[in-house]
From TrEMBL:
Pfam families: Rhodanese, YgaP-like_TM. Residues 22-110 form the Rhodanese domain. PANTHER family: RHODANESE-LIKE DOMAIN-CONTAINING PROTEIN 15, CHLOROPLASTIC. It comes from Nostoc piscinale CENA21. The chain crosses the membrane at residues 122-140, 146-171. SUPFAM superfamilies: Rhodanese/Cell cycle control phosphatase. Keywords: Membrane, Transmembrane, Transmembrane helix. The keyword Amino-acid biosynthesis does not apply. This is Rhodanese domain-containing protein. Gene3D superfamilies: 6.10.140.1340, Rhodanese-like domain.
């Protein structure tokens, strides 16, 4: 099939993206969730979160290259597949995502009044459930230890698959839906 040659996801590094941004030849799309974008994002990026990703919202011009990014590159790969499914033939994403951008020392736009990061929210909720399950298991009934075990298994699954159901659930809360504060 010829589609594999015309629909290959291209990858660029942070240095190349910085050069393309200076030349204004990039349409930069942040596919993270609104709360993540509100907290910190690459200047001039447009938010189209993966959970509400609609390829029709991605600006298409002949003069610019569409570049997607997320935290690590996993969600931008999924968004790229949606663009390919919608008929895009060239899609590029930032290798290593926001993590690589920051590691290269390039600027980000930070909002100190944004909600805490989704990862911290997950840690707080999961930690609270483990402590609650352990305390209830020790002082009320050993059956409550199942709660701690369930949360631990969920965290293992999230780490192995790089998908977090709790994070996706928390992202749907109203205060996490704001892209600016």
């Amino acid at each position: 099939m010829t589609t594999s040659h015309t629909r290959k996801l291209q990858t660029i590094d942070a240095q190349t993206l910085q050069q393309l941004l200076k030349q204004q030849t990039v349409t930069l799309i942040d596919v993270r969730e609104p709360s993540e974008y509100a907290g910190e994002h690459i200047p001039d990026a447009t938010l189209i979160s993966l959970s509400k990703f609609d390829p029709r919202k991605v600006p298409q011009t002949q003069d610019t290259k569409v570049v997607l990014y997320c935290r690590s590159g996993n969600r931008s790969t999924m968004a790229a597949q949606k663009l390919f499914d919608a008929g895009f033939t060239q899609v590029t994403h930032l290798n290593g995502g926001m993590t690589a951008w920051k590691a290269a020392g390039y600027p980000t736009k930070i909002n100190q009044n944004a909600p805490i990061s989704l990862m911290r929210q997950v840690q707080i909720v999961a930690g609270s459930l483990v402590v609650t399950g352990t305390l209830l298991g020790a002082f009320v009934s050993p059956g409550f230890l199942i709660l701690s075990g369930f949360v631990g298994a969920g965290l293992m699954f999230a780490g192995i698959t790089d998908t977090c159901a709790l994070g996706m659930l928390l992202a749907k809360l109203p205060y996490n839906q704001r892209s600016s504060v």
